[in-house]
Amino acid sequence: MKKYVEGKEKVTNELTNWVGVVFDDKSRGSVLYTGDAYHIICNDAPYTRNRVCGGRDYDGSNIKDALQKWENIIDIIYCFDSYKELMQWFVKGIKG
Question: CA torsion sign, 81 to 87 to 90 to 92?
Answer without folding.
Answer: negative
